[in-house]
Design brief:
Beta Polymerase, domain 2, seven-stranded mixed β-sheet, two-stranded antiparallel ribbon, 6 helices
Length: 170
């Protein structure tokens, strides 16, 4: 069950969530906003204080179609990495296709591969407390926490989703 304090954020995201759901795509809120809401950091009624970073199973071309007509502006400078930026009513959104990336030993640039599953995307995060997502397009919002980041938040422990060598090899 998602705490009631998430309600203002969920309400702000509802129009975007509905567009993805109508297109048969999933949308997840990720990053510091999920972590901060879970620990009660920040005033959730002040939605302007939070970043809206999302991940989706929609590919960049699909994301652009889904947000067309909704967003006031769309930018694609990160499209090669799966990121489409949008602005709506002054608020910036970053929507990134789930990724599963690997690095070649001779380069720091990732070989980007899009993924269909959220777990692959979350495994790329630096720490378990940042490897959680709030699924927005299900029948009810739900926390996706494959690496037990919520427990680590409570225990005030920093761990990596994968081995530290894998998480920080770049």
């Amino acid at each position: 069950m998602i705490p009631e304090r998430f309600a203002p954020i969920l309400a702000e995201l509802a129009p975007l969530t509905e567009r993805f759901a109508s297109a048969g795509k999933r949308l997840y809120l990720v990053g510091g906003t999920v972590r901060d809401l879970l620990i009660g950091r920040g005033d959730a009624t002040n939605v302007d204080a939070f970043d809206f970073d999302a991940t989706t199973d929609a590919r960049p071309e699909e994301t652009k179609k889904i947000i067309a007509g909704w967003a006031d502006a769309v930018w694609t400078q990160g499209e090669r990495f799966g990121t489409i930026g949008a602005k709506k009513d002054g608020r910036v959104y970053e929507i990134t296709t789930h990724r599963a990336e690997a690095y070649s030993p001779d380069s720091r640039k990732p070989d980007v591969a899009f993924a269909d599953a959220i777990d692959a995307d979350l495994s790329r995060r630096d720490f378990t407390v940042n490897a959680m997502a709030l699924e927005l397009t299900g029948t009810e919002p739900s926390l996706i926490d494959p690496f037990n980041g919520a427990a680590d938040l409570i225990a005030r422990v920093l761990r990596t989703p994968l081995s530290p060598e894998e998480s920080f090899s770049d």
